[in-house]
Amino acid sequence: MATFESDAENLDNFDGLVEEMNIEVADNIEGSSSAYVSPIWKYFEKDRRDETKAKCKICDSFHNRSGSSTSNLIKHLKAVHKIDPGCRKVTKKVNASANKTIVVKRKVDTELDRLYVMWLCHDLLPFRTGESKYFQKFIAALKPDYVIPSRTKLSQCLVPELANEIQEKLVTILEQRDVADVVLTTDAWTSKSCDNYEALTAHFICKNFVFRSATLGIAKLDNQTADGHVKLIEKLVNKHKGLMERVTTLTSDNAEVMKSTCRKLKISWFGCIPHTINLVVKNGLNISDCANILASIRAIASHFRRSAKATALLNSEQKKLKLAEHKIIRDNETRWSSVYFMLERFLEQHKAIYNVLSDLKSDLAFPSLSDLKDLAMLRDYLKPFQEVTTVMSSEKNVTASSVIYLVTELMRHATDFSVLHEDKYKVTAAVAASMRVSMLERGFPSYASNKILLLATILDPRYKTAGLPNDEAVQAAKGELFRKASLLDDSNDGIDEAVVELSSSERPKSIFDRLDENRAIANQSALICAGSRHEVESYLTEPTIGRHEDPLQWWKARQDRYPRLSILARKALCIIVNSVPCERIFSKMGLIITDRRQRLSHRKAGLLGFIAQNLQILSDEI
């Protein structure tokens, strides 16, 4: 952004600004005068009734001369009467100081326009914001000569220009050599205007071990088949040269069409772990005894949400009982872990709730003492699922390495609960048993044999082999790590097949040349294997770090010690196992395409969402 400290500095920088903005300042033409009269008036006369018209003296026809322009009159003479009036272009004498001020003003206003559209897009505000008379008064008080861009200018110029600026920066970032493997997440959404949109995000770890994300695009999805998804994903990815070759995995919801899409794209697929866990929890809570108790709690929560009187009495009771003055929570089917939070709040406030319902003589069914005990146990049982959902929903931290450990622990938790509490807490035990069956049906045990997840787990210094469930998984993870490390070529150790001297054209060929060549390559392979094995063994003997520490910072500090494994760590730990980035995009899209903005075109809506998600990229260093 240009800054201007004084008028003197503005004038000094005039030449540079003129050159930067491609504005030409004309010199005074010799012989020109403000009293100059065009020869055209030998052939025309002004219309006294209408100053915007002029009458041809030859054919008596009238012609437009709005803005005092004589262009139409000259064209008429040349085209109809074949007369060249001999008019010459006159450039008025320019006041250099005034022009310098104009250029500076244009420079400042252009930057203000840019900041204005950035603010509108970031805060998801409509283009009509600038038409508010109070907003106009506010701007007039700050800078009286600033003209707020119109809706047309915003829509047709400023928004596309800002989107192009972000796209160019994004292309530069993704085409860097240190961006190795890239993983994608995608999800679909239906707007209020019944248009289907698909969002695509990219995630990668840079050479300095910083986890970065970017939204590649938000576009209308016309064809919801696998072919339609493939076409849209390729269109968004191919804006970045060579990016498709670096894409390793795609994470989406558990729809079969997305699995088919990944097969067609020839990349690995991961289902959204938090979404899968939420489906498991919903399945367990659907058993009749549990569903009946939860239905009564939902009815009570709904009553307090719509009754001002009940809410006021609840606040009074909370003060009497010295309880936290919290509102009652009702679960939301689309929000993960919302049943757990509803139970937690209800049990926290159940005494105050009971007193209020008694005072109101409400006919709402309040849970019995035994039901309250079951609800307390159900809350405790659901807490680990809520914790795992929170951990797995992160889009800025490493998550793939936690999948095997956390999924294994959830299955163990469900098994233990269903056995230990089968007699005393039958409802919770039944929920646990149902959820365990659901986890088996959804393939939770297979995570422990997934090579990608095994590699991510063993390369996370928080877990290593301690995060794996059994010896079989440990051996599989070590084998995969040795295999991957041996395939990498570490240029720091001088291990490069390109430097092997093969037969030279400067000396006579020998019958033993092929033997020497094969022996040199075999010796290199042995050195590579020895080097990679040493790295792996040294890494595995190091102590693990705390679970709250950052594994990426650990690798950053040791990438010189483990050159091969640090490359593998960047590849494996960048995998994101949730579709949360796209979910958050569509939360914003829901604020862009509202009841009052349903006429917004899908292309414009996509651009606004793209800008809102990627504005931070403009301030990031490349």
Task: Describe the protein in words.
By secondary structure, the chain is an alpha/beta fold. Helices cover 53% and strands 8% of the residues. The chain contains 22 helices and eight strands. It has helices at residues 7-12, 14-21, 71-80, 96-122, 133-142, 151-174, 226-237, 256-265, 273-285, 288-306, 308-320, 338-359, 369-392, 403-420, 426-441, 451-458, 471-487, 513-541, 551-558, 563-573, 580-592, 602-614, and strands at residues 44-46, 53-56, 62-64, 182-190, 196-205, 211-220, 247-252, 268-271. Residues 35-82 form the BED-type domain. It is found in: Nucleus. Its main location: nucleus. Keywords: DNA-binding, Metal-binding, Nucleus, Transcription, Transcription regulation, Zinc, Zinc-finger.
Main sheet makeup? 5 strands, mixed
* H/I helix tally: 22
Mean pLDDT, to the nearest integer, reads 84
pLDDT under 50 segments (min length 5)? 1-34, 490-507, 524-528
Strand count = 8
Roughly what fraction of the amino acids lie in strands? 5-15%
What is the N-to-C order of secondary-structure elements (H for helix, E for strand)?
HHEEEHHHHEEEHEHEHHHHHHHHHHHHHH
Indicate the structural class. Answer: alpha/beta
Strand order of the largest sheet: 6-5-4-7-8
As a percent range, the share of helical residues equals 40-55%
**How far apart are the first and last residues' alpha carbons, in Å?**
18 Å
Shape: flat
Which radius of gyration do the C-alpha atoms yield?
35 Å
